[in-house]
Amino acid sequence: MDISTTTDAPPPTPSRPTTAEGKRTARGATRPGDRIFLGLSRGSGILLLVIMAAIAVFLTYRAALAIGKDHGSFLTTFEWNTNVLPPTFGIAVLAFGTIVSSVIAMAIAVPVAVAIALFITHYAPRRMSGPVAYVIDLLAAVPSIVYGLWGALVLVPHMNGLYGWLNDFFGWTGVFSWQEGAPRSMLTVGILLSIMILPIITNVSREVFRQVPQMHEEAALALGATRWEVIRMSVLPFGRSGVISASMLGLGRALGETMAVATVLSPSFDIQASLLDPGGGTFAQNIASKFSEANEFGRDALIASGLVLFVITLVVNGAARVIIARRSEYSGANA
Amino acid sequence: MSTAAVTDKRASSLRGASLPTWTPWAIAAGSIALGIGISAAAGLHSSIQWALIAGLLFVLGTYGIAARVEGRRQARDRVATSFVWVAFVVAVVPLVSLIWVTVARGVKVLDLYFLTHSMGVVADTEPGGGIYHAIIGSLEQVGLATVIGAPIGVLTAIYLVEYGRGRLAKAVTFFVDVMTGIPSIVAGLFILSLMLIFKMEPFGFAGSLALAILMMPVVVRSTEEMLKLVPNELREASLALGVPKWRTILKVVLPTSIGGITTGVMLAVARIAGETAPVLLLVFGNPFINNNPFEGAQASLPLYIYQQFANSAGSGAAYDRAWAASLTLIAFVMILNLVARGIARWKAPKTGR
Lengths: 335, 353
Description:
A: 12 helices; B: 2 domains; Phosphate_PstC (chain A); MetI-like_sf (chain A); transmembrane helix (chain A)
């Protein structure tokens, strides 16, 4: 304690050089090498914080320039015309499309990912669970542009049959009506996104399911529970918060995915009820596809929409991390 | 006669009837056959429909048969099991399809010519050309990003593990976590806003900066995990010999965990090598060979794939090139992954005992 409190003192202490106290101070004191190294490493940490702050500041600055000249309402206008005078743009369509595609992706990915995590931890033969986990990691390693290419050239043509079915059986709801256009729509985007976010949800859930106390499961088994009942009564309740935060991490990925959406979706600036008809757009997709034709003002407008995306993902990821942090304290107390 | 019947009955009431172990396989085979049969009869062409019918029949059939023979609780258990298996198959199918298609269509034009020529004199809709310029661009951008991102990431992790106490360390930990989730396009927009302010044209190094931002948090996380695995006894032994802390870190802690750190950096490199969005905004793409990352637009592999796809106008030649470039990119990323895992296994920190 004594040493650690005096480490900040300069090494030579001329005031009391002869006392034992002084000697100890000198020995425990920071050497130049230590100070440089601490400075470097602390500096890197601070640099990371500075970068985060700079992202927020500069995006806000450029966004403010654009929003100030926006002739429409930034939040409710259904248009993106930045190259004409007066410029009119709004994020309503993008916000809607981003949320819809992510919700579809979550609805498909979360149950499947939880099932796969359970498969790896509880169902698979022991020899299989390692390779399966590896295959899921491979899914995560494939670059998103390759998913996009695959989605546009392989998945899209394969969706016709499914779309026909949905239209035949559920077309009356309006949500699943289909006018026989190419299936470059929100539903296909959602399905592709669900494949892409599967690995992260699976990996985090798997870690949580591994931490379930053996005692809980054995107690349930001893009471005569079937394997499913063990999972429902001991594994899922224990892992619930972990699965929630895993899903939010996946959601953050889905919200910000750019290339896969840009290649698959055929965008338009309107909101429609049907998930099967092409149209709509997402924040990231809009930035990628509008960028090349945008002038300087148009780029500022795109930066403004990117700022909204940044804030949304910040909130989602922050919330997920807070849940995980609370969880780890809890399980640490239990260990 | 009667006693035999009684013992039989008692045995069955204790154990309950159960299906033979081969039942799930039989139901699976039956439902796949039935699914194909129904689809063929109804004239469905999409394999997704076939698979959906088969999957549905499998889960329903399992429940029906098990509920009849074994009772409801067992039936539910079996349904859960079959759902888990179906989910696993559902996840593997896209991966297999993706790799299969990429390899099958990528090998068509992938040869030495393709790897050593640029698109300089070839229109996007015509056959010919190659990805040399994109490989050069990718290597330079990712290399520069690694030179910037990896040291900062490792140093931050050292700070968090070896020095980090108090509020600053907590804030850094939290924001590193949040930073992991920043969409790549937002990192691109950040650098773009700087470029707009300084009135700069697109160039390779700008892309490197965005990639470095994406790389740092990944490196920090993995390095942190590795440094935490180094046993405290090693540090204490070194400090007890009077070695300064910074030399302890450089000579004892880092060498012990260097394998894991290398793995983490390589995985991060694999991740940023596939990023398209920031490169699209900042480097812009260029059909000609540009060896200078500090001036003028460059190409990069992921961007090349996107631009071949987007500018193809439905031409098969452009799609073929996009698939071949995808194959190259996947091969690069997978090799990095495998090597990284190999290093991790080979140089796993010896935690003693």
